[in-house]
Design a protein that fits this description.
mainly alpha; disordered C terminus; three-stranded mixed sheet; 9 helices; single chain; about 200 residues; elongated
C-alpha cells in the first residue's frame, strides 16, 4: 500500500486513540515507514497496538517488516526514571558497578576535562534501560517524587547530562536537595551514588 493510502486510512490517528499518545507515521523511503511517539507505551506494546489495529482493519498498517518503531524520550521521562532509580538500592549498586567498570577500563582513564564521569555514563545507561522497560515513563512513581522531578528538570535545564551530574554530585548545595533524592526504601541516606574516586 502507498504512503498516501496508509495515511488516508488514518493509522497514526487510530494508534493515538488506542495508545493514548500522539503518534506520527513518517515515510522512510520506498515502501518503508517510521512510527514515532514520545514516552507512552513501550515499543513492544506499540507493536501489539499495531497488530490489533492491523487485525481489525486490513490494509491500515504497513507490513511489520517495513515499519520502524521509534520511541522518543522526553527530558521529563528521563528525570522521572532517574528519581525512581535513586530510591532503589539495587539501582544505586548497578550504577556503582557500572562506574567501576568504566573507571577500570583503559578508555575511561584518559578523560577530557569537563567530560562525563564514569558514574554519569553508568547512570545514563541505567536510566535508559529503565526507560525502555517502562510504560508511561514520564509519570512519577510516587506523589512525593513530583517536586523532585520538576526541580531536577529546572536545575539541569532539561539536559540528561546536566541532570546526571547533579544526581551524582555529593554536594547538597547544588540546590536539588540531594539528601532527599538519595534515600533508600529504608529511609537511610546514600551520600553518593558512587563511592570513592569521582574521576575528576
Amino acid at each position: 500500500m502507498s504512503d498516501r493510502g496508509i495515511r488516508e486510512y488514518g493509522l497514526d490517528g487510530e494508534l493515538a486513540r488506542v495508545a493514548g499518545v500522539e503518534v506520527r507515521l513518517v515515510v522512510d523511503g520506498f515502501a518503508a515507514w517510521g512510527l514515532e511517539w514520545v514516552d507512552g507505551p513501550t515499543v513492544d506494546r506499540m507493536r501489539a497496538h499495531v497488530a490489533a489495529v492491523r487485525a481489525g482493519r486490513r490494509g491500515i498498517a504497513p507490513p511489520e517488516h517495513r515499519l520502524d518503531y521509534r520511541r522518543r524520550q522526553s527530558p521529563r521521562a528521563w528525570a522521572a526514571r532517574a528519581v525512581a532509580a535513586m530510591r532503589d538500592v539495587s539501582s544505586v549498586r548497578a550504577v556503582a558497578a557500572g562506574a567501576a567498570l568504566r573507571r577500570n577500563h583503559p578508555a575511561g582513564r584518559n578523560r577530557r576535562p569537563g567530560a562525563l564521569r564514569p558514574e554519569d555514563h553508568a547512570l545514563l545507561d541505567l536510566v535508559q534501560r529503565l526507560y525502555e522497560g517502562s510504560a508511561d515513563p514520564e509519570r512519577a512513581d510516587r506523589p512525593e517524587d513530583e517536586p523532585l522531578i520538576r526541580r531536577l528538570l529546572a536545575e539541569g535545564n532539561q539536559s540528561r547530562e546536566a541532570m546526571c551530574r547533579i544526581l551524582n554530585d555529593a554536594d547538597p548545595d547544588l540546590g536539588l536537595g540531594a539528601e532527599d533524592l538519595r534515600r533508600t526504601e529504608a529511609g537511610g541516606p546514600i551520600l553518593r551514588l558512587v563511592s570513592g574516586d569521582s574521576g575528576r
